[in-house]
Amino acid sequence: AQSVTQLDSQVPVFEEAPVELRCNYSSSVSVYLFWYVQYPNQGLQLLLKYLSGSTLVKGINGFEAEFNKSQTSFHLRKPSVHISDTAEYFCAVSESNTGNQFYFGTGTSLTVIP
Amino acid sequence: NAGVTQTPKFQVLKTGQSMTLQCAQDMNHEYMSWYRQDPGMGLRLIHYSVGAGITDQGEVPNGYNVSRSTTEDFPLRLLSAAPSQTSVYFCASRNGRTYEQYFGPGTRLTVT
Q1: What is the rounded distance in angstroms from the CA atom of residue A34 to the CA atom of residue B17?
Q2: Cα–Cα nearest to A36, from A25, A23, A52, A26
Q3: In which band, very low, low, confident or very high, does the pLDDT at A91 lie, cut at 50, 70 and 90?
Q4: Which of B103, B107, B108 to mutate to test the interface with A (most CBs of A within 10 A)?
Q5: Residue-wise pLDDT tens digits, A47-87
Q6: pLDDT tens digit string along B28-77?
Q7: Which of A10, B3, B33, B86 could form a disulfide with B48 if both were Cys (CB 3.0 to 4.6 A apart)?
């Protein structure tokens, strides 16, 4: 089974500052990678995904992530955060040969400070 | 187009009771899944289905049953509720081509 590690459980950052949320996964096989956002008392919403091609992927709300195969990482970045970005962020991995099981990290709570 | 719907939103059960969490999607997705979300543990896959009549176990299947008689519906059954099943349950469906998962709003279940 896969394991997905989000090392930072909580990340406080000032408004308009840059942020990076880290994600590492364990698989040695080809994978699909995802970042989801969860606002309080809501379901998860897809921010961005990597299936193949360019290792830098852009998503909604100004977020981007870079796939690094050698480091088995998929870190999420935003150059300037807003108060509305305060939420829980989850990294997820699926093995590309089946794509049927998704493995989620434990989440990173991003708090944007005015 | 409602996406993924779940009922009920909240439920309180006593230990030993059974119930069914309902999930429906109107996007004609073949793949559907159930997750539970617990504090500090992220989402864990309970069961999934790749089409009507086909289901399989995820990471944490014990105590739960599923069936998939139609493309639209994927109910989750708790056979004999236990306090350890207190959690928030999310249903999701996935686009087979883009791999994007769409999540329902969740069911918050408390077992006393």
Answers
A1: 36
A2: A23
A3: very high
A4: B103
A5: 999 998 899 999 999 999 999 999 999 999 999 999 999 99
A6: 999 999 999 998 888 999 999 999 999 999 999 999 999 999 999 999 99
A7: B33
Q: How far is CA A18 from the centre of its chain?
A: 15
From chain B, pick out residues whose CB is under 8 angstroms from the CB of A46. 100-102
Q: Which residue, among B80, B78, B62, B66, has the nearest Cα to B15 in the 3D structure?
A: B80
Using beta carbons and an 8 Å cutoff, which residues of B are at the interface with A?
4, 31, 33, 35, 40-45, 48, 50, 56, 58-59, 90, 92, 98-106
Residue A4: its chain B contacts at CB < 8 A?
Answer: 42
Whole-angstrom Cα distance, residue A35 to residue A49?
6
Pick the residue from chain B with its C-alpha nearest to A92. Answer: B43
Contacts of B60 in chain A (CB under 8 A): none
Rounded distance between C-alpha atoms, residue B74 and residue B92, angstroms: 10
B33 and B91 in contact (C-beta within 8 Å)? yes
Whether B101 and A40 have beta carbons less than 8 Å apart is answered as no
Burial class, B3, CB count within 10 angstroms (exposed 0-12 / middle 13-18 / buried 19+)? middle
DSSP run (H or E) holding B44: strand B42-51
